[in-house]
């Protein structure tokens, strides 16, 4: 089976992106990174992605008059990369339906909470403040509604009595990398089937 072509989007350190990249090199994912997108010119991820010797597209949202212009700039530059899959790995921008539609069921995101609870920013802190006893992360397909797409993989961690929001976030992070690698691996092996808002994992 041919390797899937992956473009990764990130805004900060890109730790999830780096974990995915290493998994492609280790053979855990039947894919290859063919490009990267970052919306913050000074983000550490820019240098990390450049070290992979792939095209790196930097699109500072503040340099564009509208969201449509911002997305059009990215769309034009990733089109030649012929992405089979786009991975959002800490990309802190909402993408419009206009951008998502051509890549329907081909954009994956990871969220540091157990969706459908605690959508949006700071999912770990939301969970901590709510007093839940179990927290975790979710890998899902991206749809125009925020954090509402079909769920591919979830993993959980206990919330301990002595936890703070920060220690809980750190524990969730230990589950994020394996969960994202598993989800992307399933995609690249053509094991995912989307029916409505549910994902079936084929044998």
Automatic annotation (TrEMBL):
UniProt cross-references to SUPFAM superfamilies, sorted A to Z: Formyltransferase (SSF53328)
Enzyme class: transferase
InterPro entries assigned: Formyl_transf_N, Formyl_transf_N_sf, GART
Catalytic activity: N(1)-(5-phospho-beta-D-ribosyl)glycinamide + (6R)-10-formyltetrahydrofolate = N(2)-formyl-N(1)-(5-phospho-beta-D-ribosyl)glycinamide + (6S)-5,6,7,8-tetrahydrofolate + H(+)
Keywords in alphabetical order: Purine biosynthesis, Transferase
Binding sites annotated in the UniProt record for N(1)-(5-phospho-beta-D-ribosyl)glycinamide: 14-16
Gene3D superfamilies to which the protein is assigned, alphabetical: Formyl transferase, N-terminal domain
Pfam family, one: Formyl_trans_N
Site feature Raises pKa of active site His, where: 147
Pathway of action: Purine metabolism; IMP biosynthesis via de novo pathway; N(2)-formyl-N(1)-(5-phospho-D-ribosyl)glycinamide from N(1)-(5-phospho-D-ribosyl)glycinamide (10-formyl THF route): step 1/1
Enzyme active site: 111
Entry GO MF terms: phosphoribosylglycinamide formyltransferase activity
Ligand binding ((6R)-10-formyltetrahydrofolate): 92-95, 109
Ranges for domain Formyl transferase N-terminal: 4-184
GO biological process: 'de novo' IMP biosynthetic process
Family from the record: Belongs to the GART family.
Stated name of the protein: Phosphoribosylglycinamide formyltransferase
Organism: Anaeroglobus geminatus F0357
Gene that this sequence comes from: purN
